[in-house]
Amino acid sequence: MVMRYNSKLFSSIRGINYVPSNAVNTVQLWEEFDAKTIDRELGYAEKIGLNSVRVFLQYVVFEAYPEEFIERFEAFLELCNKHGLSVMPVLFDDCWGEEPKLGPQPPPIPGVHNSRWVGSPGKSRKNPKYYPKLREYVQKIIGEHQEDKRIIAWDIYNEPKLEDESFSLVYNAFKWAREVKPIQPLTSTWYGNLLSDVISIHFYMNPEKDPEKAERIISCAKSFGKPVIATEILGRPNHGELHQVIPFLRKHKIGWYIWELMIGVDQTRYQWPGQPKVDESIVFQGLLYPDGKPYSEKEIQLLLELARDETV
User: Fold this and answer.
1) Is 99 in contact with 123 (CB distance < 8 Å)?
2) Are 158 and 165 in contact (CB under 8 A)?
3) Phi, psi of 63, rounded to the nearest 5 degrees
4) pLDDT class for 6, splitting at 50, 70, 90?
5) Where are the domains of the chain?
6) pLDDT tens figures, 30-86
7) For residue 238, which of 280, 260, 263, 205 has the smallest C-alpha distance?
8) From its phi and psi, is residue 33 left (phi > 0), alpha (psi between -120 and 50) or beta?
9) Starting at the edge strand that comes first in sequence, how are the strands of the sheet with 228-233 ordered?
């Protein structure tokens, strides 16, 4: 098999991180799997000129319902393909809540960014005694789609913590993934980049405000000699708005995934905890309200113009 990764492929990504507007986290996304809402919202992504989706999977749902999870993942891939969107699945994640649990998820905490987000597989399941099951998860998901052209890359681990359990799982998850020989490249953020075929960065900064730091980040990422993707961007107003970040990344021929498509109940519309307060009318992250109305018409016009430029 020949792994299909090159700079041109990844520089052309105009992507979005996606969580349905009615899901507080990935447990709710995959356990309830509201295909009607997902279809409608991916249609919004298509209409505003986007061409790729980064989506977080959830191990505990697979653990409980492996066959149903595979069916739902396949349905998600089909919906993305229907709307002309390639997919970058994320298998593991260390962000926010440490222990995912099945069943109805608690409502969001008012005014709190990503208040019910949970990692995957969760702190307790990073224990090596779970490795046989985690290996099965990685190899089942990737193995069933190892030559699937709908998938542009596998994001093995999002923002792994700097601790022994996470470091060990990063290493082993890459090893398990390579054993099934996918044609798609593997990637991960932070120290996971040491094992990656494609370098992932999270570019939450304003390159106009601090151009030297921005150039340094890109130079460091490119020093690996591999294609670079910005798998997360956008943090209004102080962590890089689209009109500031996208032209900078285009100059460096780097594709990107905006966080995020929908302004939904995960509440990333609010600033990160501990950040300086801004006017409540400012949406920190997210492009569209649940009815499809844009937060910023200027941003949508920028995205449409970029899409037109790519097709000329």
Assistant:
1) yes
2) no
3) -55, -40
4) low
5) 7-311
6) 999 999 999 999 999 999 999 999 999 999 999 999 999 999 999 999 999 999 999
7) 205
8) left
9) 186-188, 154-158, 86-93, 52-56, 14-17, 255-258, 228-233, 199-203
Q: Look at phi and psi of residue 272 and say left if phi exceeds 0, alpha if psi is from -120 to 50, else beta.
A: beta
- Please write the tens of the pLDDT for every residue from 268-296: 999 999 888 888 899 999 999 999 999 99
Cβ contact 230:249 at 8 Å:
yes
Listed residue (56, 63, 68) closest to 32, CA to CA: 68
Tokens 């702190």 found at: 123
Whose tokens are 């939450």? That residue is 204
Q: Where do we find the tokens 């229907």?
A: 82
Per-residue pLDDT tens digits for 224-251:
999 999 999 999 999 999 999 999 999 9
Segment (H or E) for 203: strand 199-203
Choices 2.60.40.60, 2.60.120.260, 3.40.50.150, 3.20.20.80: CATH for 7-311: 3.20.20.80
SS3 200: strand
Which residues are registered as beta bridge partners of 89?
Answer: 55
Amino acid identity, position 59: Y
pLDDT at 242: 97
Residues composing the chain = 312
Alpha-carbon distances of 111 from 69, 119, 146, 182, rounded to whole Å: 31, 21, 41, 41
Q: How many Å from the N-terminal Cα to the C-terminal Cα in the chain?
A: 32
**Interatomic CA distance for residues 89 and 53, integer angstroms:** 8
Rg, C-alpha atoms of the chain: 18
Q: 102 to each of 55, 163, 224, 252, how far by Cα in Å?
A: 19, 26, 39, 42
Specify the pTM.
0.96
CA distances from 257 to 39, 42, 48, 203 (A): 19, 14, 14, 10
